[in-house]
């Protein structure tokens, strides 16, 4: 921060010289000598350049700095006296006199000299040049004094606001910097975009309280200015102070008569940030206040969706939120009818009913209603595929296959068709038709443009790596049967099959997958202790295999959500980054680490 700041002020102070230097080989060479500590060579070139441009303070300053670096104060003083004789009114040359006092140990004389300069300057140009010199010399108190006196002498309380903002930033006084940037805005309101960008750029974790204080103080003084209130809202958003952002959004909604549009947009931002409860607070505001608004129906739908997303964001699954999601979808559909615009809500409700609430008939009824709607076929595809999943759930393989193949044939060479083919491949896998499943999966995995390609690769490798090890492929069939039982929520049977596999085939390559399935079963049952036991088994015995990072991430999630042990969760996520640097979970693990550290919104 400080390095950039000094560079900025060097450009302000010596802009003309730098522009000149860019096109002059001798200037470049002199700067190289100075930066490399070859001060005698630098002095020779800077003096030559000063003779060509005697009023360029940069060259004079560099000659003096070089002499002082060589412990030659007398030569520095003589050179400055000559410069002053040629330009006695040059305020920066006069300021350099104080620097010589200071370097000579005469601190009181230096301070008195500079204070006198501040007290005697009269023109805006000299105030600017003197304050810039002070700033470049790291004498920010004197720079502020010069700017303050300029405001008094020239009767302009907002003069040099931009320059003062930079000084305050250098001092890490972000309250003062924010106030000064706002002065820039109030002086010239066309500068709003610039001021907003500067203030939001300063917003870092350690600065937010001071900056918020400045913004609130200004709003109290100028309550009629909506732009500053907009800026405060953006500030809260950028720093992820979401509760404050919501309060500000509601205030702006009323002031600007926005009919909830800003609040709805914020609710979606909160949803993306996994702040589901707060997102619903925002949506509740719309439902309560804008029943005639176009946002009303959308808000009701997003409330249900938030409950659904919240349910799956917690390990183990939050079944209470699943019930709330289904109830809210039901209320939405009863109020607005089952029609094309709400097909997604119907589908989401059905999926939750079928797989998480054991209400297969209720879910199937919703899906069949979607199929009957008068809308494009592509909008019905998800429902049709889910109906196929229901048939699979019920053990009717033939009906499931017919459903999948019908979709695949209707939407060949599309992502939808690929999804249907993948379902068909899984059906073959569950039935023990491993070679047929592999043939389908090979087509999918070789077409990397398919969204399903990674899933196809994983299942293909699972089958390929675990068939042919014995003549009957019994182990693979037991595992497929267990996974089908899990799919059907028949957990006792699934556990029995998995235990049988471990007993019949000790040390089989499927062992880590077996322990993974057992961990997932116990998570579904809400048995955290047993789930943790099998995750630890994977980490201790199979940590170097493909399930290692899966198990470590799942264990961290359990500590974060189920056991409420944030420190251990944090350490486990960090451990994952170290042990599994190529893990697909690494991006999410970093996000979790930042969240657990309370760093949301600051560089995430």
Brief characterization of the structure:
By secondary structure, the chain is an all-alpha fold. 76% of the residues lie in helices and 0% in strands.
Structure description:
There is one protein chain. With 604 residues, the protein is an all-alpha fold. Among the domains are: 1-171, Serine Threonine Protein Phosphatase 5, Tetratricopeptide repeat (Alpha Horseshoe), CATH 1.25.40.10; 510-596, Tetratricopeptide repeat domain (Serine Threonine Protein Phosphatase 5, Tetratricopeptide repeat), CATH 1.25.40. Helices cover 76% and strands 0% of the residues. The chain has helices at residues 2-13, 15-22, 25-35, 39-52, 57-69, 73-86, 91-103, 107-120, 124-136, 140-153, 161-170, 174-187, 192-202, 208-221, 226-238, 242-256, 261-272, 276-289, 295-313, 319-336, 343-356, 360-372, 381-393, 397-410, 415-431, 434-446, 453-465, 474-487, 491-504, 511-524, 528-542, 548-562, 566-579, 586-596. Helix 1 (2-13) runs antiparallel to helix 9. The radius of gyration is 35 Å and the shape is elongated. It starts with a helix and ends in an 8-residue tail after the last helix.
């Amino acid at each position: 921060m400080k390095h950039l700041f000094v560079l900025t002020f060097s450009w302000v102070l010596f802009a003309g010289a730098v522009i000149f230097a860019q096109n002059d080989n001798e200037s470049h060479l002199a700067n190289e000598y100075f930066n490399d500590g070859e001060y005698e060579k630098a002095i020779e070139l800077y003096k030559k350049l000063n003779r060509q441009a005697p009023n360029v303070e940069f060259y004079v300053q560099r000659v003096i700095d070089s002499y002082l670096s060589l412990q030659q104060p007398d030569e520095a003083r003589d050179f400055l006296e000559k410069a002053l004789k040629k330009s006695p009114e040059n305020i920066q040359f006069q300021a350099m006199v104080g620097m010589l006092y200071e370097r000579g140990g005469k601190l009181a004389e230096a301070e008195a000299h500079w204070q006198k300069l501040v007290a005697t300057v009269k023109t805006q140009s000299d105030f600017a040049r003197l304050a810039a010199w002070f700033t470049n010399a790291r004498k920010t108190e004197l720079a502020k004094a010069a700017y303050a006196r300029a405001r008094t002498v020239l009767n302009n309380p907002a003069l040099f606001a931009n320059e003062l903002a930079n000084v305050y930033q250098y001092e890490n006084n972000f309250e003062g910097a924010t106030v000064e940037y706002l002065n820039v805005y109030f002086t010239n309101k066309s500068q709003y975009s610039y001021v907003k960008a500067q203030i939001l750029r300063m917003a870092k974790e350690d600065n937010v309280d001071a900056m918020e204080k400045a913004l609130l103080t200004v709003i109290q003084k100028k309550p009629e200015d909506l732009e500053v209130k907009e800026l405060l809202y953006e500030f809260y958003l950028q720093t992820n102070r979401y509760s404050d952002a919501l309060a500000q959004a509601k205030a702006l909604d009323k002031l600007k008569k926005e009919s909830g549009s800003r609040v709805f947009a914020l609710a979606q931002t909160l949803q993306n940030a996994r702040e589901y409860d707060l997102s619903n607070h925002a949506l509740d505001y719309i439902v309560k206040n804008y029943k005639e608004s176009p946002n009303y129906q959308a808000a009701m739908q997003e409330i249900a969706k938030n409950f659904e997303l919240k349910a799956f964001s917690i390990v183990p699954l939050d079944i209470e939120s699943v019930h709330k999601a289904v109830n809210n979808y039901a209320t939405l559909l009863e109020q607005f009818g089952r029609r094309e615009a709400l097909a997604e809500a119907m589908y989401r409700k059905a999926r939750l009913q079928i797989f998480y609430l054991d209400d297969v008939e209720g879910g199937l009824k919703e899906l069949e209603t979607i199929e009957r709607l008068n809308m494009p076929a592509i909008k019905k595809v998800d429902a049709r595929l889910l109906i196929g999943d229901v048939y699979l759930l019920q053990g009717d393989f033939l009906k499931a296959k017919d459903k999948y193949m019908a979709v695949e044939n209707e939407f060949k060479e599309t992502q939808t068709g690929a999804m249907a083919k993948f379902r068909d491949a899984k059906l073959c896998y569950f039935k023990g038709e491993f070679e047929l499943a592999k043939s389908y999966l090979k087509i999918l995995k070789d077409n990397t443009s398919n969204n399903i390609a990674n899933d196809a690769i994983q299942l293909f490798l699972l089958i390929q790596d675990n068939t042919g090890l014995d003549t009957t492929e019994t182990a693979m069939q037991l595992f497929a049967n267990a996974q089908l039982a899990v799919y059907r929520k028949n957990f006792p049977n699934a556990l029995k099959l998995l235990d049988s596999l471990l007993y019949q085939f000790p040390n089989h390559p499927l062992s880590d997958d077996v322990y993974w399935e057992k961990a997932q079963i116990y998570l579904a049952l809400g048995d955290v202790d047993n789930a943790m036991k099998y995750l630890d088994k994977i980490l201790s015995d199979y940590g170097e295999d493909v399930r290692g990072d899966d198990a470590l991430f799942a264990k961290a999630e359990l500590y974060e959500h189920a056991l409420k042990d944030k420190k251990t969760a944090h350490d486990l996520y960090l451990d994952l980054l170290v042990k599994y640097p190529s893990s697909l979970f690494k991006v999410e693990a970093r996000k979790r680490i930042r969240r657990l550290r309370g760093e949301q919104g600051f560089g995430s």
